[in-house]
Model the fold of this input.
Amino acid sequence: MATGYVWHELYGWHDTSSHAGLLPPSLVLQPYHHFESPESKQRFHSLLEVCGLIDHLTRIQPKQASDEDILRIHTPEHLARIKAESATLKGGDAGDGTSPFGPQGFEIAALAAGGAIAGLNAVLAGDVTNAYALVRPPGHHARPETGMGFCIFANAAIAIAQAKAANPDLRVATVDWDVHHGNGTQAAFYDDPTVLTISLHQDDLFPRNSGAIEERGEGEGLGYAINIPLPAGTGNEGYAYAMQTVVVPALRRFSPDVIVVPSGFDASCFDPLGRMSVTASGYRVMTRQLMDVAEEVCSGRIMMTHEGGYSPTYVPLCGVTVLSEMSGVPVDVIHELYASFDTMPEQTLNDYQRSAVDRAAAAVSFA
Ligand code: 3YP
Ligand code: ZN
Done:
């Protein structure tokens, strides 16, 4: 069993410029970093090196996704606009004014999509059993015609479309555990019954009015989109219950050839952009749950591609913990002070979390 790992130094060079969190600086917003800064991701990579886990992983070198790859998901107008803004001295924005990129940001965004492609192809070729693509910028909000929510291109969707172009019979399931709704991945396959998209997210966080239980796909794809909106505050037990009650049975029934995980660590208890309570050990449990069902249905094939997560100090601990579980290499980077968050009251499944999950489970129906 080998675990693949994709990283490129240029992922840290994606430039979201001087910001004050979400907005550009002004006379009331002192210049600081954009939330989507390199820190959490670079420090995740650094910890993999320093703790030694990286020596047990199979490094996979990404290359830029081609125009053809990007155009399987995006409109020619979106690709052309990103390229044009990227070619200026100032760079541009992916579409909503909160998704900036620097000069030559196009090349880095294409390299992020290419990282997801390389990770997925390594898994499908059998070079590795599972893989983690630590890419940046993220992708799960990007829709065919525009980027949004810090995303430029839909990395996971582009990788899946590329794999399906090579093998039209391929069946893929996505399990998006980023705290925000995976609206872009969902949109790319909304009418497609061969790609099951599942998103667990904080109820109505971002995008607003997106990711309700009632969003279930359309046409041939009706039933093949599953949304699990969870109440703000949900912790490890609530997430594990959602996995056990909704995600695992759906995966068992759908029986994909591979599971793709848009992986954000912004459902963590330390995240500034989410209001959830998941700890590193919660992410370890969810990883185990996915690995167990993946072993049953698809020989363990899982490819994770990085999305959000904005705590520079805690994202690396969650990421290394997930990769420890994926690779079977025991690494414990969790100090007892952090472990004490595992036993806090918000980790316990409560009645309104249970009923939210049960309602999502009741809405699941596909052939
Ligand atoms: C985009 C603007 C406000 C919240 C933000 C969400 C980015 C993210 O982590 N998406 O997964
Ligand atoms: Zn997110």
